[in-house]
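Blackboard transcription, Thursday session:
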Amino acid sequence: MSSKVSIDYGEFPDAGGHFGRYGGRFVPELLMAPLEELAQAYARYREDPLFLAELEADFAHYVGRPSPLYYARRWSEQLGGARIYLKREDLNHTGAHKINNTMGQALLAARMGKTRLVAETGAGQHGVATATVAARLGLECVIYMGAADVQRQSVNVYRMRLLGAKVVAVEAGTRTLKDALNEAFRDWAANVDDTFYIIGTVAGPHPYPAMVRDFQTVIGRETRRQILEREGRLPDALVACVGGGSNAMGLFHPFLAEAGVRLYGVEAGGEGLAGGRHAAPLATGRPGVLHGNRTYLMEDADGQILPTHSISAGLDYPGVGPEHAWLKDIGRAEYVDATDREALAAFHTLTRAEGIMPALESAHALACADRLARTMTPDQIIVVNLSGRGDKDINTVAALEGMEL
Amino acid sequence: MNRIERRFAACRERGRKALISYITGGDPRPDATVPLLQALVEGGADILEVGIPFSDPMADGQVIQAACERALAHRVNIRRILEMVREFRVDDAHTPVVLMGYLNPIEQMGYAVFAREAATAGVDGILCVDLPPEESQSFVETLQANQLDPIWLIAPTTQAGRIHRICEVARGFVYYVSLKGVTGADSLDVSDVAVHLANIRAATRLPVGVGFGIHDAAAAGRIAAVADAVVVGSALVAQIEAHQSEPEVMYGVVRELIADMRRAMDAAVVKIALGGER
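(Written on the board underneath:)
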């Protein structure tokens, strides 16, 4: 597409939170004022040197940044194609990229005088990252989690409780992540005066998609600096998994204007796109409105939201961040999928080839990189966002292979 | 004058406040909706809100989410709801009907098709809970081209500038959300409601209805003393849920609950006229 070189990506979203036709702010009237209050506070603090210095210090000394950019030599050589680097977000405190965002939003909440944090969580990673920063800052914390996920992710539920958070099991609807989001919005609506809602991904009403992206772009900024130091040039391709899409947006955004860097977002193909048991709204869905923004959704002909399926609870969501929807439509990023089976294979491959056990979410990105690298040559470079570590998934992997731990 | 205007004018002439009822279309079964609407009218409801069920009703509490799930189990969609309205209109040409729902099902049907078919079925107004005025230009234009009133919510958190902006696009009536929270929530502070109503009345001559947190006749009476209309939803839906297996009992209980509220509201208005409290 010839028009893409002329796009100034820094101009998006517009003042109303739109990325082209996507994004925006579609919420009950009660939430309009708190969202405006949040947007104004964020606009102020994102340029406040003291706020940014505090965030940077917490990134360095609490989260453990910068995370390494690791050359996966053995795996790359086995594939015989491009050289693959892994951005090691799995080495962050709490084991995933999620804390980049929760740290930023919690510091903002404290600046705004809010004393109570609420959040939704699917697999529990965002819930743990929120409960962690709540403990760090001495804030009250309530985590909403679908009742089905509470059962599947009992270890993370216990971690959150150890950290002092109250975990509420949501029995409504499909009892999964989307229902937890509904319930977190309801809590916020009832408690707007003292409560800050920390959304865990680049979705939701404006300003969340832009704000979460900004906190996560530390991933892409570090990657850019690190690859220039190591290779003296930018990579040929970036690969990241996409549920809501925060780790992908954090990696992609600082490279959007670099036309030579191809961007691959990998959705959860589940049991295959044809059968409908997947979580790939960009591949199979159509634009609609859910959870405060317009984006691609998995929905039926009546506009009811469909249940999703993925081996990884973190990708098990029927929507996707609006900026991804826009990048798909303008052709700047390519969206592909990896099935449960492919992700599981990649989980084992990386564990054996490099001694790094990836989260099943990140394993979807690895599966795509595996396919991609084989079509490329050793003078080419791929960076994969290794967004989380796989310790949390070993019960799932064992169960799939017929073992009980 | 459309049905909503006529109804408010009639209420004013008779010195009474309007009673607006909400039920979810298709709850607990599609064939119960028309008899329920008729029972509500018999009990004294002035305006009927019919909810379009949605899988993810984030502005509603558990009572109405459960109602949506019961309706969706029967695959109730907008076209089924419009059939129900058409059927209701066979015997009732006067009671206004307002559809209340979320944007996504309406968007998937298409604004133009939705508005045309709703108007043809006998619908008078549309309240789309997750569509703020900022995003609503083409939606509002489409509704007005089909003589449908866009109904808007105003919240305790809505600032004065926004109240004016909402009232500029509002028709029929405006709906004040009487407390922070979702439908079915607790606690109601009537003096606080009165202060907000004064701010809204400074911005519009439209009637102002109050809803959220009105569970019983006593609360309906207290609100009737200050508002032009009282909206009751979750309290009705809870009765529908409780009696879903016995339709005749369900219709009777719903009729009586509305009649109790009607009496309490009329008594409150008479009290004011006689120079009683307030």
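Lecturer's comment: Chain B touches chain A at residues 54-59, 61-62, 65-66, 69, 72, 75, 77-78, 102-109, 129-132, 134-135, 152-159, 162, 166, 177, 180-182, 185 (CB under 8 Å).
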